[in-house]
Write a structure and sequence with these properties.
This protein has 482 residues and is mainly α. Helices cover 65% and strands 1% of the residues. A two-stranded antiparallel sheet has the order 1-2. Strand 1 and strand 2 form a beta hairpin. Helix 1 runs antiparallel to helix 3 and helix 7 packs across helix 9.
């Protein structure tokens, strides 16, 4: 293990985090939020000093191997979350460090589960910081760091591979730094367009920026205690946010294809078609179930159905209505969508559509093999035959994901929640959805859970965001012995 190189990159991560803290610090200073400003200032100082120390640790080699990459991804997300929690605690926004850590992890993993109450009363600097965490975490703070600091002189492809959501991210440039820059240009432009669209819908500039951060990062933190339920009557805003979440759930490499004028290739992507088909059919099914039962007009029905389906499937977690009061059929669809997610290569969490595609094709192949034992049926996605090791990884991921979900649900149920609330709490955090049902539903939140449950759910957020295997590999004794 090249521990010196790991320490240097982690130190640079903390230096970046310390520099970014200057933005909410400036907001708090400008608005006279003294306690919040002190919290940000202390956080900047501590984070910067530790980062400066680590970044000067000598490294044996500038070359980054897979083991170091996995280590940086896992430890990096954890320590960045740790220091991101400090402003929440020092500002008085939360009563304990566990709550602060939960909120920070939720932000950086783009989960959006919150332990805060009376959000409108919080300092603007804190509100900006928690939403900025979504934006930073959306495409991965590690990729951002390697894009900004190419002078590290390391080949960071292993980090990008571990960081990028999904099993088969399209490689559209050979060098990580160049790829990361392209991703963040697309990400930044999309963010700016969403800010302008939300502002046009009648929301203030400050709230527009925060809602855009939550949309493009598929995070779900809103500057309001009721998410966006209080703005549910603003139809243009609802449609803008629903569209924004849908776009954020698309594989970002497809946007690059569109920029290059390769529209046919981008639109022929099979995962994109599955993604849109699942969302469309879900909206139709929920709408048919809600019309006449919950909403009297077709327009209101379609508006809320599309918004909530888009929000849950892309793992954003914004809420325009208390869907906990919807009929069981609609709630069931939303619950199942928590295990779908959007596209690989997007900012979405959960399983991802491409994995479900591969799983479905494997099942179809096995059924066909019963009828035709000698037939060879390779798994084909977007015209490409999936290698056996990729198929094996997908099946292993699916089995492990649902095993973690089952064990996690039982552990959270020990906190006194009913079983369905416990299951939805785990689904909401492991899948980075952020909102569940029952005791952790749209109007409940996670504040009432015990400290132990919050730590477990924080771990699940990190586990889900990093696609299970990197975290579990680092936790394995074998990882450190070899």
């Amino acid at each position: 293990m090249n521990s010196g190189l790991v320490a240097r990159i982690l130190g640079n991560l903390l230096l970046i985090e310390g520099a970014v803290l200057a933005v909410p610090l400036g907001i708090s200073l400008f608005l006279g939020e003294r306690r919040a400003a002190i919290g940000f200032l202390v956080s900047m100082g501590v984070t910067g000093l530790i980062g400066l120390y680590l970044s000067n640790v000598p490294a044996k080699s500038p070359r980054l191997k897979a083991r170091e990459g996995i280590c940086i991804v896992t430890i990096g997300w954890t320590i960045v979350s740790f220091f991101a929690a400090v402003p929440f605690l020092l500002s008085g926004a939360v009563p304990s460090f566990v709550d602060a850590f939960f909120e920070a992890v939720s932000g950086l993993t783009t989960t959006g589960a919150s332990v805060l109450s009376r959000i409108e009363d919080l300092p603007k600097g804190i509100l900006f910081w928690r939403s900025l965490l979504h934006w930073l975490g959306g495409m991965g703070i590690l990729v951002l760091t390697l894009a900004i600091l190419p002078t590290l002189g390391v080949v960071g492809f292993q980090v990008f591979r571990a960081e990028s959501p999904g099993p088969t991210p399209d490689k559209f440039t050979p060098r990580l730094a160049a790829t990361s820059k392209i991703l963040y240009v697309i990400y930044g432009v999309l963010t700016a367009l969403i800010v302008l669209a939300v502002r046009t819908a009648g929301v203030s500039w400050f709230d527009s920026i925060l809602l855009a951060f939550g949309s493009v990062g598929t995070g779900g933190f809103a500057p309001f205690s009721d998410s966006v339920m209080g703005l549910g009557a603003n139809t243009p805003l609802v449609l803008v946010l629903a569209s924004s979440m849908l776009l954020a759930g698309v594989n970002f490499s497809l946007y690059y294809e569109l920029i290059r004028g390769r529209w046919k290739q981008a639109l022929a992507n099979s995962e994109l078609r599955w993604y849109l088909a699942i969302m469309g059919l879900s909206v139709l099914a929920v709408s048919l179930n809600l019309y006449g039962r919950v909403y009297g007009s077709i327009g209101e029905t379609l508006k809320h159905a599309w918004f909530q389906v888009s929000s849950v499937m892309t793992t954003t977690g914004y809420v325009t209505a208390d869907f906990d009061l919807w009929p069981p059929f609609s709630k069931g669809i939303l619950f199942l969508l928590m295990f779908v997610g959007a596209s690989a290569g997007s900012t979405s969490g959960s399983v991802k559509v491409v994995r479900l595609m591969v799983g479905a094709k494997v099942v179809r192949g096995e059924i066909s093999r019963v009828l035709h034992p000698q037939a060879a049926r390779p798994v084909i996605v977007s015209g490409r035959v999936m290698p056996p090791e990729v198929v094996r990884n997908v099946i292993s991921f699916l089995l492990l994901y649902f095993a973690v979900f089952a064990v996690g649900s039982l552990m959270i149920s020990l906190d006194g929640l009913d079983l369905f609330s416990s299951m939805s709490a785990v689904a909401a955090t492991l899948g980075n959805v952020g909102v569940g049902f029952g005791g952790v539903g749209p109007t409940a939140g996670f504040a009432g859970l015990g400290l132990g449950s919050k730590l477990i759910l924080s771990f699940l957020m990190l586990l889900g965001r990093l696609e299970l295997f990197p975290v579990l590999a680092v936790l394995s004794p074998r990882f450190w012995k070899e």
